[in-house]
TrEMBL record:
Domain FAD-binding as annotated: residue spans: 19-54, 289-363
Domain 2,6-dihydroxypyridine 3-monooxygenase substrate binding, chain residue ranges per copy: 161-230
Signal peptide (from-to): none
Membrane-crossing segments per the record: 20-40
A UniProt-annotated Pfam family: FAD_binding-like
Keyword hit for Glycosyltransferase: no
UniProt entry keywords in alphabetical sequence: Membrane, Monooxygenase, Oxidoreductase, Transmembrane, Transmembrane helix
PANTHER family: MONOOXYGENASE, PUTATIVE (AFU_ORTHOLOGUE AFUA_6G14510)-RELATED
Organism: Paenibacillus taichungensis
Name under which the protein is recorded: NAD(P)-binding protein
C-alpha cells in the first residue's frame, strides 16, 4: 500500500477488527455504535462540522421488525424508549451522545472524503486534507450523493430525481398564535388533503422532551410536484441527478409569496399557522426527492448502508428503519471476525440478508413517484 505525495496515514496499525465509516449522520452513527458493540474499533468520518444539524421528523416506532438485540438497542437509543414520531435533531443528538461516549469510536468532523480504495489486506479512505484512514472493512454511510457508492457500484453511481420535492420545517409551538395551537389530545400525525398536492404534519416533543401545550414542536412536510423548473434553474437538480437541497436563504422571494398564498387555501390549522411562520422567517428547506434501487451493497471489503445503499421516497416512512436494520445486520454479520478473507465474507453475508428487502422497499415507493412526480 503505497502512500501518495501529500498523504498522511492517521490510523494504520496491525490490530484486527477495525472499521472506517464515511458519514456521521443517523445511518453512520447507528453503524458505528453497532460495530463498536460487536468489538470493532471504529473510525467515523464526517465532512460537515460538529455544529448540530436540523431536520424534519422521523418515524421511529416500527420496533416490531427488530429481531436482534443490536436492533433493539439501536431503537431504544434513537427513540429514547418512546414509540412516536421524533424530531430528526432529537434522534441525532441521542445517537451522537452515545457514539461520543463510546471508547471504541473515534469521531472526526470536517473530514470530507474524496477517494476510497482497498486491497487484499485492508480498505482505506483519503480525506480532502490528505489524511489516510485504514480499516479491515470500510462502510459508506455518506448519503444519497455517496462517494463510497461510486466504488461499490461504479456502473450505477447516482440516485435519480423522483420528479417532485418536499418543503419541510420544524416550528416551535410557542411561535404560532395560541388560538391555532393543537389541543392536548390532537392526533400526533395528520395528513390533510390539498389540491393536487398533500401535507404530512407531526406534533413532536419540545427540545426538553415535553409534550405540554406551548412547549411542543410542529413538523410539516409539503409534497410539491409543481416546481421542478425552479429546482433545475437553481442547480438543485441537473439532468436526472439531485445535486443539493434548496436552502432557505436561496429560495426566491416570489416563490415564498406563492407558497404563502397556496397554503392559505390548501391547509387547515394548526398547519397553516406553522407553514406561514416558516415562510415568514425563512425557516424551511426545499428537498428534491431522489430514489436509488441498489444492484449491490458490497464490493470486497467495502459496503454501503442507509441512503448510500438505498434511497426511497419519504412517503414510505421506512428510511430510518431501513438504516437501523442495515446497521444491526451488518454488526451481527461481522461479530465473528473480519480477519483475512473473513471481512469480505461477512460483508457478502450482510448483502445477502439486506439486498432483496431494501430493493423491494424502494420499488414500493416508486409507484407513487411515477404518478405524483412529473
Amino acid at each position: 500500500m503505497e502512500l501518495n505525495k501529500g498523504e498522511n496515514i492517521v490510523n494504520k496499525n496491525n490490530t484486527s477488527k477495525s472499521a472506517v465509516i464515511v458519514g456521521a449522520s443517523l445511518s453512520g452513527l447507528m453503524a458505528a455504535i453497532a460495530l463498536a458493540r460487536a468489538g470493532l474499533q471504529v473510525t467515523l468520518l464526517e465532512r460537515a462540522g460538529a455544529k448540530p444539524r436540523s431536520g424534519a421528523v422521523l418515524q421511529v416506532d416500527s420496533g416490531d421488525m427488530d429481531r436482534t438485540v443490536t436492533a433493539q438497542v439501536l431503537r431504544k437509543l434513537a427513540s429514547g424508549g418512546v414509540k412516536s414520531v421524533e424530531a430528526w435533531s432529537s434522534v441525532e443528538s441521542r445517537l451522537y451522545a452515545e457514539a461520543k461516549a463510546n471508547p471504541g469510536i473515534d469521531l472526526h468532523y470536517d473530514s470530507g472524503v474524496h477517494a476510497v480504495d482497498q486491497d487484499v489486506e485492508a480498505a482505506w479512505v483519503v480525506t480532502n486534507r490528505g489524511e489516510k484512514y485504514y480499516g479491515d472493512i470500510l462502510i459508506g454511510a455518506d448519503g444519497h450523493r455517496s462517494t463510497v457508492r461510486r466504488h461499490v457500484a461504479p456502473h450505477k453511481p447516482n440516485a435519480t430525481f423522483a420528479g417532485y420535492m418536499i418543503w419541510v420545517a420544524l416550528v416551535e409551538e410557542k411561535d404560532i398564535p395560541e388560538e391555532h395551537r393543537p389541543t392536548l389530545n390532537a392526533p400526533r400525525v395528520a395528513m390533510p388533503d390539498g389540491i393536487g398536492d398533500f401535507l404530512l404534519g407531526s406534533i413532536v416533543a419540545g427540545t426538553d422532551g415535553s409534550y405540554a401545550p406551548g412547549y411542543r414542536r410542529l413538523g410539516w412536510a409539503w409534497y410539491d410536484n409543481s416546481r421542478n423548473d425552479l429546482l433545475r434553474r437553481l442547480g438543485c437538480v441537473e439532468g436526472n441527478v439531485v445535486r443539493h437541497s434548496l436552502n432557505a436563504a436561496d429560495i426566491p422571494e416570489e416563490t415564498l409569496i406563492e407558497l404563502a398564498k397556496q397554503a392559505s387555501v390548501r391547509w387547515p390549522e394548526p398547519w397553516l399557522a406553522a407553514i406561514l411562520h416558516s415562510i415568514h422567517t425563512r425557516n424551511l428547506i426545499g428537498t428534491p426527492i431522489a430514489e436509488y434501487v441498489p444492484d449491490t451493497l458490497v464490493k470486497g471489503r467495502i459496503a454501503i448502508v442507509g441512503d448510500a445503499a438505498h434511497v426511497l421516497t419519504p412517503l414510505t416512512a421506512s428510511g430510518f428503519n431501513s438504516s437501523l436494520q442495515d446497521a444491526a445486520t451488518l454488526a451481527d454479520c461481522v461479530a465473528e471476525g473480519i480477519q483475512g478473507t473473513k471481512g469480505a465474507e461477512a460483508l457478502l453475508e450482510y448483502e445477502s440478508k439486506r439486498l432483496k428487502g431494501v430493493r423491494q422497499i424502494v420499488q414500493s415507493g416508486q409507484s407513487f413517484s411515477r404518478t405524483f412526480g412529473r
